[in-house]
Amino acid sequence: MNFDPTIPITTAVLMGLVAAAMWGTWFISLKYLDDYPVEAFYLTLFSTSMVLVWGAGFLLDGSALITNIRLVWQADPSRVYVTLVCGFVYVAGIFLSLHVIRLIGLALSQPLQASMNLIIGTVLSGLLGGIPQGLTAARMALALVLLLAAILLSMRAGSLRGQAEAARLSAVEQRNTQQTTRTAILLLAAASLLAPAYSIGLSYGLTSITQPHGMAVMPFMAVLCTGAFLCALVICGTSLTLRKQWSMVWKAGLRVHKFGILSGLAHYGGNIIHTFATRNLSAVVAWPLGITAGLWTQMWGLAYGEFRGSPRRTYIYLFAGMACYILGALVISKLF
Questions:
Q1: What is the pLDDT at residue 148?
Q2: How far apart are the C-alpha atoms of 106 and 155, rounded to whole Å?
Q3: Which of 67, 90, 162, 210 is 20–30 Å from 250 (CA)?
Q4: Is residue 148 packed enough to be buried (19+ CB in 10 Å), middle (13-18) or exposed (0-12)?
Q5: Long-range contacts of residues 184-190, Cβ cutoff 8 Å, at least 24 apart
Q6: pLDDT tens digits for range 159-175
Q7: pLDDT by residue (tens digit) across 243-257?
C-alpha cells in the first residue's frame, strides 16, 4: 500500500511554504561555483535527486511504488507519460533560469520569471486538476493580485538596484550590461514557457482531492524525477562533451560536489514535501504557495549584498513585496 497520509489543511499549507523556502534557497549554490560549469553542477543535483526520490519511494511504499505506476499505466498510460515528459520539460526551463541567475543575479531574475509563471501555472492547475470546494473566485483573484503585486514590487526594487549599479559604470560597461539584461529576458521568456510543465504534471499525473485519477505521491515523484534526470543527462551531458569539460567533473572534489548534492536534497526534498501538500490542497492552491519561493530568493539576494548601495526607496519596494508574498499565501491557503 502506498504511503498516503491525510494531512490537516493548516499542516499542508505549512508544508507548501516550507517547500517554497527550500526552492528559493538552493539557487545560492551558484554563488560558490566560480568557474565550475553549471552543467556539471546540474548533473550532480539531479543524480542526487534520483537517489533521494527512488530511495525514499521504496522506503515509504516498498513494492507498491512500482505496482502503483504499473496500475495507473494500465488504466490510463497518459498519466505516466505526461508526468515523465513534464519532468523533462520543466528541468529544461530551470536550466535556462540558472544561466540567467549567473548573468543578472537572484534579485532581478526571480521576479522577472515569477511574473511570467504565476498566472499561467495557476490557470493550468485549475483547468487540469480542478478547484477545491470553498475556494471562491473572489478569494483566488485576491490571492493572485497580491502575489502579482509582490512580484511587481520586487521587480521595481531590482530595477532601482540596477539603475544604481549602472550609474557607477562607464558608458561601455553600461552598454554591456544592457545587452546582458536583454539576453537574460529572452532566456527567462523561454524558461517561463517550459516551467509550467511542473504544475501540469502535478495537476494531471497526481491523485489529489480534486483529481481522482493519477499516481500516488511517491510513484508520481519517481516518474517526474526520472524525466528530470533524463533531461539533465541529455542537455548537460551533450554540453560537457562538446566543450570537453568532463574532466572538470571527475577532478572536482567534495568541496565542489557538495553544492550539487545539497541543492539536489533541497530541490527534490522540497518537491516531495510540496507534492504531499498538493495531494491534500490541490494543485491550484499549492502552485501559488510555491510562488512564495520568491520571498526567500529576495531575502537571500539581500543577505548576499545584491542591493548594497541601492537608494532607500529600493528597500521600501523590496519589503512591500515581501509583505504581499505573505498576504497572498495567507489568502490562497484560506488562513486569512
A1: 81
A2: 11
A3: 90
A4: middle
A5: 184/100, 184/103, 184/104, 184/108, 184/109, 184/112, 185/112, 187/96, 187/97, 187/99, 187/100, 187/103, 188/96, 188/97, 188/100, 188/109, 188/112, 188/113, 188/116, 189/116, 190/93, 190/96
A6: 777 676 666 655 545 55
A7: 999 999 888 888 899
